[in-house]
């Protein structure tokens, strides 16, 4: 927890420095952002992203080997996908209900004349599903196509499991590679407080206090829905299905949440997320590696909450009344889009454009929420990875393999996590 404490201190310091420079020395902030804040954040993000592909590939291979039985693998996959789809639907319903009650876009005097936003086109869901099978696994790794990497790694793991003793040496090689990347994660995390300081100082300083105040009600709706969803849905599923104390769950997974908040990237946080779930939540590596790696790619509850709140906010800002049929369409479109845009960069805004189009709202309204999206992205990323971990706990408990929470915590060399 020492590392988590240092990251929190760095985040608070970054917020204060960013706001002070924005208010009193904007010229100095511009220079500091270019030569200090952004370099610190970029170096940390690149170090974490550097490990994502090897961590996912090695973890999925070992996880599939550990599961072994194809029927068991299919069962775990069905439970994982079911959990993700159900919680995503609940997330967007919570956001819609909260936004309809609070009305963040009503009476705000938002300028809607002349705003413009050009939305990227998302691929059809069928293309995403067909694209899971890589024609070139090495190319998929070079491009960072996570769904293709997961598919190929699961296939390699399945082959190793079926060949048994004939591939024992190769299994040992993967186990040793796993130890190596986990050591590298621990080593790189020592730089996390500096990276967190740079990222938050840049984000807060570039937005400024006026932008935050103008969008305060919208931000409050999104943040409130994120907190409610985390406590009730994730905490409830951990308690009722996972048979674990939600306080224990959030306390032990907190270090990974802090990293997710500072990076605003599920992929960059994946190495530390896997490590934390396996060592602190006692989730078996075979389930953790599969569930959390898949979740980092397609589970977007935090993004779904942003979509629900943004749809209502944009409709109110433009003076448009949403019907019950349109609200149902928003829920269905957002749930399907969470899979359909899985491998697309900037998936959150593409998903929002799809949802707005599905109910006839102006896509240009996205420009209204872009100003504070970077800050909200940090919070919803923490919620996204929490959902992945909650799913791993629930699936592990349903399979009867979740470790004893009273057992020894983490080995000495990873106490910093």
In helices, the fraction of residues equals over 70%
Q: What kind of assembly state do the chains in view correspond to? A: single chain
Continuous helix count: 16
Main sheet makeup: none
Structural class: mainly alpha
Can you tell me the residue ranges where pLDDT is under 50 for at least 5 consecutive residues? 409-417
Strand content: under 5%
SSE topology string: HHHHHHHHHHHHHHHH
Radius of gyration: 21 Å
Tell me the span between the first and last alpha carbons: 6 Å
How confident overall, as mean pLDDT? 83
The number of E-state strands comes to 0
Shape by Cα distribution: globular
How would you characterize the overall build of this protein?
By secondary structure, the chain is mostly helical. The protein is 78% helix and 0% strand. Helix 11 runs antiparallel to helix 12 and helix 14 packs antiparallel against helix 15. The radius of gyration is 21 Å and the shape is globular. It starts with a helix and ends in a 19-residue tail after the last helix. InterPro entries: Na-dicarboxylate_symporter, Na:dicarbo_symporter_sf. This is Na+/H+-dicarboxylate symporter. It is found in: Cell membrane. Keywords: Cell membrane, Membrane, Transmembrane, Transmembrane helix, Transport.
């Amino acid at each position: 927890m020492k590392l988590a404490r240092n990251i929190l201190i760095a985040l608070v310091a970054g917020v204060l420095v960013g706001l002070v420079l924005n208010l009193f020395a904007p010229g100095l902030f511009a220079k500091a952002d270019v030569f200090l804040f952004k370099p610190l954040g970029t170096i940390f993000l690149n170090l974490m992203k550097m490990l994502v592909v090897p961590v996912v590939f090695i973890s999925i291979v070992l996880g599939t080997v550990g599961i072994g039985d194809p029927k068991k693998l299919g069962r775990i996959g069905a439970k994982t996908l079911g959990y993700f789809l159900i919680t995503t639907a609940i997330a967007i319903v919570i956001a819609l209900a909260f936004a309809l009650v609070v009305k963040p876009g009503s009476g705000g005097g938002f300028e809607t004349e002349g705003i413009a936003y050009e939305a990227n086109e998302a691929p059809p869901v069928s293309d995403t599903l067909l694209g899971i099978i890589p024609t070139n696994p090495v190319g998929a790794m070079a491009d960072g196509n996570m769904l293709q990497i997961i598919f190929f790694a699961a296939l390699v793991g399945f082959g190793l499991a079926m060949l048994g003793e004939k591939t024992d040496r190769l299994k040992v090689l993967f186990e040793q590679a796993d130890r190596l990347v986990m050591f590298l994660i621990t080593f790189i995390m020592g730089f996390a407080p500096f990276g967190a300081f740079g990222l938050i100082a840049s984000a807060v300083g570039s937005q400024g206090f006026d932008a935050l105040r103008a969008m305060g009600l919208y931000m409050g709706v999104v943040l409130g829905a994120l907190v409610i969803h985390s406590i009730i849905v994730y905490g409830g599923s951990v308690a009722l299905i996972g048979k674990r104390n939600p306080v224990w769950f959030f306390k032990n997974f907190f270090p990974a949440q802090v990293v997710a908040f500072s990076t605003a990237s599920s992929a960059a946080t994946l190495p530390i997320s896997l490590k934390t779930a396996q060592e602190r939540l006692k989730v078996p590596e075979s389930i953790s590696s599969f569930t959390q790696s898949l979740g980092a790619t397609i589970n977007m509850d935090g993004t779904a909450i942003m979509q629900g709140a943004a749809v209502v906010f944009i409709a109110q800002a433009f003076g448009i009344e949403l019907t019950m049929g349109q609200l149902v369409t928003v829920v269905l479109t957002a749930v399907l889009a969470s899979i359909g845009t899985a491998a697309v960069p900037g998936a959150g805004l593409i998903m929002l454009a799809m949802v707005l189009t599905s109910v006839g709202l102006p896509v240009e309204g996205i420009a209204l929420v872009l100003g504070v999206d970077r800050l909200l992205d940090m919070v919803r990323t923490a919620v996204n990875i929490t959902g992945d971990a909650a799913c791993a706990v629930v699936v592990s408990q349903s399979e009867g393999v979740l470790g004893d929470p009273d057992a020894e915590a983490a080995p000495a060399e990873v106490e910093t996590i």
